[in-house]
């Protein structure tokens, strides 16, 4: 369960960075 939680957090972190970059590209 702990490993799954870590993977989830990493995935969310990556997704957040991608969203931030995407917003910058739109602007």
TrEMBL record:
Keywords from the named record: Mitochondrion
Protein's name in the database: NADH dehydrogenase subunit 3
Organism annotation: Marmota camtschatica (black-capped marmot)
Gene name of the record: ND3
């Amino acid at each position: 369960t702990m490993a799954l939680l870590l993977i989830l957090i990493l995935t969310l972190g990556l997704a957040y960075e991608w969203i931030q970059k995407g917003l910058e590209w739109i602007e």
